[in-house]
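Pasting as-is:
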Amino acid sequence: MLDLGRRQDDLVLLTTPSMRARRSPLSIAGLWLWQTSLALLASLPAAALARAAWRGDPEGDGPLWAPGAHALIDWLWHDWHGVRAVYGGAEVVLLVGAVVGLIPTTALMIEMAYVKRGRASAGLVPSLAGGLRAWPSMLLLLFVSGLVQALMLGLGAGLAHLVERGAHGGMGEARAEQIEGVVLLVVVALVSAVGVAHDLGRAAIVRFDVRGLRAFGLGLRTLRRSPVALWWSWAWRAFAGVTLIVIGGVMASRLGGRGGLALLVLALLHQAVVVSRVALRASWLARALRAVDGTLRRALP
């Protein structure tokens, strides 16, 4: 089986310990720019709608930030048709972005795993070209893992409900709901493990040039060899990203509705959160590349 490095003779595979996110700051910046562009495309229509609705107010859209959210609820109620159209447009942008965004994400992984002969990096054009070639496999992998996660969530929710109903009579309502919560937590943990296997499968596509279904199997195989360590490598970065979002949300609630320096600080804070989350994501994908390369390199022909 040919890998990406052999299909592109000018790309050379790095040693496993060298596959690090810090090697690719420009690619991380490019992925940040891609996500920021998508966010602007999704949010600008909503901003324009709010600006048009509050054009005559001396405070602009300031009332939308008032405590109690009365003005916000009133606006959403009376401009529901416009809000629904904006929401539908944002859904389309984000869906298309998630599908097309597989290309820059794969390009980042190629940049972290390969270098061009005689140079310190793979380069923008070869990385994007590799991402484009791998896109069908990445898309199939995304579909398969998403389907598995959806089925697990549905079956898990049904199982939790059945357990709650079965325990309700003998243990009481409070204890039954606690047991239901435990079952749901286990289900969520298993679903997140499938997400980890999905990313490991992405690494297998980049490293070994396998197809989507084969890549998913290799991802599960890699996870099975070191489940706790790999899950935790993904989890602490995910928790750190969520923590950054919470901090940004708290700061936004305090700075929102004001212009001038406060607005500038809010914009910089927002972008700092986005860049940090992209860097955390890149760090995890580099970890996935190292895990796949280290455990499966000798197992594949």
